[in-house]
Design brief:
The structure holds two protein chains of two kinds.
Chain A (H helix, E strand, L loop, with lengths): L1 H7 L12 H9 L3 H17 L6 H26 L7 H17 L4 H25 L4 H19 L5 E2 L6 H9 L1 E2 L2 E2 H19 L1 H11 L1 H6 L4 H27 L1 E2 L6 H12 L11 H20 L6 H22 L10
Antiparallel strand pairs in A: 1-4, 2-3
Helix pairs in contact in A: 3-14, 4-9, 4-12, 4-13, 4-14, 5-6, 5-7, 5-12, 6-7, 6-12, 8-12, 9-10, 10-12, 13-14, 13-15, 14-15
Chain B lengths: L8 E10 L2 E11 L4 E6 L5 H8 L7 E6 L2 E3 L4 H6 L2 E4 L11 H5 L6 E2 L2 E2 L1 H14 L15 H13 L5 E5 L7 H16 L3 E5 L3 H7 L2 E6 L2 E7 L5 H9 L17 E9 L8 E6 L3 E6 L5 H9 L5 E6 L2 E2 L5 H7 L1 E4 L3 H5 L6 H6 L7 E2 L2 E2 L1 H14 L16 H13 L5 E5 L7 H16 L3 E5 L3 H7 L2 E6 L2 E7 L5 H10 L23 H7 L4
Helix pairs in contact in B: 13-14
Classes of the chains: A mainly alpha, B alpha/beta.
The complex binds adenosine-5'-triphosphate (ATP) and magnesium ion.
The site of magnesium ion (MG) has 6 residues of chain B, from helix 1.
Chain lengths: ~350, ~525
């Protein structure tokens, strides 16, 4: 039935052999073409020049180093798909990290400490969500404001001091989880995979996920077709808050400490990863698969810079250039400014 | 016209392919100076693709373009403009955040010294718009305008350039009858001055009123060419759809049953819609006529929950709380808005998702989309409503305009609602598909739905409706049925609010009403008998 319909409505099949290889690859990989091409090229270069690159040790190291970025980027994917943006995500993560640190310091067990941390993330997200969707304040204004607020909270919680959590009883569990492995596979990799699968399923196969795409594509059409636009928008920010808290758990687990300050370039890296993965900043287009590729791409670049002992000061420059190139490629795809392999042009 | 002189534009053996589709297959045609040529054919037959190639927006995969007999490459719209080719494309291309004046003179803003001469810009823009009979504040931002006015701005921009060939791709589809007539007048004027016009339209009366020749495309190939008005309409239609269209509006046998939709004192706070009252029975089609700004659009939006409104609306006896699309849907109202791009489509999403997102309430279980059922139902809509697409996963905006419309109607009709509110459902749809859509509307009514059909095409209202409510200055001025259901009567009520002959002269007025001169509900009530 399905098949026959598709054929019946076909206007006329174009002879497939005539389409250039590059344009076919571009069509098949969709908006993430740039990220995939980048990963392939970099991997080949690094594999040929840096013998360590393809070792299991380096690969697990790469995964571990990029898990925080990945978790934050998965959350950011939701907001971008819904047509918004959250600038407070890294600051929220720092603040929830401090909450986690304080909980451990107070002698709490791992599970209550984790629960409270996640709850804090949800509350931060709820604040962003309510202000953007119900109070109708533009998301850039809201999240710029809350970014500042959350950064301040992170500092205030422990008077600006880092909490060394290594000796607290509740920390062992988190530490074991973040650094441990089974059958040579790091737990954190499994955690990443599970999180990616869950977010992908939510976005693609649930009413809520489809609603996010609809709202980001055309909020008015979504509203007229019965989708609760405000609730959807609000929940998206709540999800970001939750992933910010998850990321802070991973971060504290890796560093064995909760720091009230954070790497200022992380926000840019997170958003860049999502955009490089082909999620449109205008909303409604893209997804988790692209985000994974975007994070991987930036991670491989970073790893390459480390392996080749290039100063880490270059990281920001490289990320910025890659972001602009990748998004330019996406724009070109859409408007056909660069025509892949077209003859006679 | 000198036959030995080379044609203004000549295209030869044009070929254009898109993934999965041959949009143009060896098409040749020529347009001479001063000629008004109709380009017509079914939805998805390649008309817009051809116009975009001539307008420099697309590059052909094969064939060539000759301007004044010399082969030219039109690499972009600017290059086309240098040869005097101006395209008004089907999708509006205005800069939404700029003012009307800036849009009209975009790229050609008059200068004095180094700076833009704003008074002159405003004066010239207002002048061109006045020629079109449009009097709006040229300082308004374009995105605050209705589709019709945006279309007028787009037209104003095109006619204010020094065009040698003007391509109008369904420029009239969002215009009211009066605005259409003014545009056709302008076309005649341009043609007299030697400007060639390529008119793409699905409306037969326009083709016959303006064009001296029609070229018909079918499935991307040339299906024929016909001199006008010598060729009979049914001949032309047969060329387009490949068969005779019998029984254009279809028919239904079931007599209207019990009242399903009751409306009493429905109005909006801003006065655009003043208190109206009517009833629609199961199996009945209530037509709604009126000029742009008459309140008919607000009626549709109020019933669909798109705008806040007050009054008493009952569906199947149950009162409906107004102002929310979700509640309107839950009450069983299937609403199709008139502005496809702004209110109905999810531009970056696929055909399948554009259809199924309107069913999220029913196609999910425990919050999860039932994927197999979704796929099956979407495929059924695509097949049942003849949506021409090479794949269900194709981006909806890559479908031709008419096929986008069929997808939107299909997703709404598939919901099986007791009440439908359809605002301009056949906008941009080809004759064959229009007839098919009329068939679907008849079938909906036959199955017991109450249909409110808002349309600016009087023949379609007459062909489908049991009764037609005519709006004027925000309220219903008359409900016409039976032998009175003629274009003259409907037109007269729409324009002046009174019957033909009652008024010495017919005045088109777009002023906002200050007072309701007749108690509208009484008039509506008087005409309610069938
Ligand atoms: N950019 C594109 N990418 C892929 N397919 C396209 C693109 N533009 C058009 N098509 C396809 O080419 C065919 C011709 O489309 P076109 O828009 O020219 O039709 P049309 O005759 O203008 O139809 P309508 O009367 O509905 O406007 C359609 O099958 C359409 O889906
Ligand atoms: Mg078209």
């Amino acid at each position: 039935m399905n098949q026959s319909t598709a054929e019946r409505t076909d206007v006329k099949a174009a002879p497939p052999a005539r389409r250039p290889v590059l344009s076919r690859i571009a069509a098949a990989t969709g908006p993430a073409t740039g990220a995939i091409a980048g990963i392939v090229i970099l991997t080949v270069i690094l594999a040929l020049t840096q013998p360590v690159f393809l070792t299991w040790g380096n690969i697990t190291n790469l995964v571990g180093a990029n898990s925080v970025t990945l978790v934050l980027a998965l959350g950011a994917t939701f907001v971008l798909l819904a047509g918004g943006l959250d600038l407070s995500i890294v600051a929220a993560s720092a603040a929830t990290g401090m909450v986690f640190g304080l909980m451990l310091q107070s002698g709490a067990d791992a599970l209550p400490a984790i629960a409270v941390t996640l709850l804090a993330g949800l509350v931060f997200g709820l604040l962003n969500g309510v202000l953007t969707s119900y109070a109708r304040i533009p998301f850039l204004v809201v999240t710029l404001g809350t970014a500042s607020l959350f950064a301040s909270i992170a500092l205030l919680l422990n008077d600006g001091k880092t909490i060394n959590v290594f000796d607290f009883p509740g920390f062992a569990f988190v530490n074991d989880f973040v650094l441990g492995q089974a059958f040579g596979i790091p737990f954190i990799l499994m955690f990443d995979i599970v999180l990616v699968v869950i977010t992908a399923v939510v976005l693609r196969y649930t009413k809520f996920g489809r609603g996010i795409y609809a709202v980001g594509s055309n909020a008015e059409a979504a509203r007229l077709n019965g989708i609760n636009v405000r609730l959807t928008t609000m929940l998206v920010y709540v999800i970001v808050g939750f992933t910010a808290a998850l990321a802070s758990l991973v971060q504290v687990g890796r560093l064995a400490g909760a720091a009230p300050t954070f790497d200022a370039t992380l926000l840019l890296t997170v958003i860049a990863a999502v955009l490089i993965g082909g999620t449109a900043y205008t909303g409604g287009e893209g997804g988790v698969g692209g985000t994974v590729l975007g994070v991987l791409f930036l991670g491989v670049i970073q790893n390459g810079l480390t392996l080749t002992s290039v100063s880490s000061f270059w990281r920001g420059a490289v990320n910025g250039i890659v972001l602009i190139l990748a998004v330019a490629l996406g724009v070109a795809r859409q408007y056909g400014w660069l025509r892949f392999g077209r003859k006679g042009r | 016209m000198n036959a030995s002189e080379p044609a203004l534009i000549r295209v030869e053996n044009l070929v254009k392919r898109f993934p999965g589709v041959v949009a143009l297959d060896d098409v040749s045609l020529e347009i001479r100076a001063g000629e008004v040529l109709a380009l017509t054919g079914e939805n998805g037959s390649g008309k817009s693709t051809l116009s975009k190639i001539v307008g420099g927006l697309y590059q052909p995969d094969g064939g060539r373009i000759l301007v004044d007999g010399v082969e030219r490459r039109l690499a972009n719209p600017h290059a086309a403009l240098e040869h005097g080719i101006v395209l008004i494309s089907q999708e509006l291309t205005l800069a939404p955040t700029l003012t009307v004046a800036e849009n009209v003179l975009l790229g050609r803003l008059p200068r004095r010294g180094g700076a833009v001469d704003w008074p002159e810009t405003r004066r010239r823009a207002a002048e061109v718009l006045a020629e079109l009979g449009v009097h709006i504040d040229v300082e308004r931002r374009v995105d605050s305008l209705s589709v019709e006015l945006q279309q007028e701005v787009e037209i104003a921009r095109a006619i204010s350039t020094r065009a040698r060939l003007l391509i109008l791709d369904e420029a009239t589809s969002s215009l009211s009858e009066g605005a259409t007539l003014r545009l056709l007048d302008i076309v005649a004027g341009l043609s007299a001055r030697g400007v060639a016009v390529l008119m793409i339209t699905h409306r037969m009366p326009e083709i016959y009123a303006s064009c001296s020749r029609a070229v018909v495309l079918r499935d991307g190939a040339l299906a024929g060419e016909a001199p006008l008005p010598a060729t009979a309409e049914h001949e032309l239609v047969r060329m387009m759809v490949g068969r005779e269209l019998l029984d254009y509006y279809g028919s239904r046998v079931a007599a209207p049953a019990g009242v399903v939709l009751e409306v009493e004192g429905l109005h909006t706070a801003d006065g655009a819609l003043q208190p109206v009252a009517f009833e629609v029975r199961a199996g009945e089609v209530l037509g709604v006529a009126g000029l742009v700004g008459s309140g008919k659009a607000e009626l549709a939006m109020a019933l669909g929950g798109a705008i806040p409104a007050r009054g008493d609306v009952r569906v199947g006896g149950r009162p409906l709380r107004l102002g929310s699309p979700r509640r309107a849907i839950a009450a069983g109202i299937g609403y199709v808005p008139d502005d496809r791009r702004r209110e109905a489509l999810l531009p970056p999403r696929s055909v399948a998702e554009n259809i199924s997102f309107a069913w999220l309430g029913t196609i999910t279980r425990f919050g999860f989309v039932r994927v197999a059922a979704e796929r099956r139902d979407v495929a059924k809509v695509v097949a049942d409503y003849g949506v021409k697409t090479s794949s269900l996963d194709k981006r909806i905006t890559l479908l031709s305009g008419g096929n986008q419309q069929k997808a939107i109607l299909g997703r709404t009709f598939a919901r099986g609602c007791p009440v439908y509110v359809l605002n301009e459902p056949t906008r941009g749809v080809d004759v064959g598909s229009k007839s098919a859509i009329y068939g679907y509307i008849q079938a909906l009514a036959e199955k017991g739905a109450a249909v409110v059909l808002i349309s600016s095409e009087l023949p379609e209202l007459i062909g489908l409706s049991d009764r037609v409510a005519v709006f004027h200055h925000g309220g219903i001025r008359a409900v016409v049925s039976g032998d009175d259901l003629t274009e003259e009567v409907l037109g007269a009520y729409a324009v002046s609010g009174t019957r033909p002959g009652d008024h010495p002269s017919v005045v088109i007025s777009t002023d906002t009403p200050t007072s309701a001169d007749t108690p509208t509900s009484a008039v509506a009530g008087a005409g309610r008998t069938r």
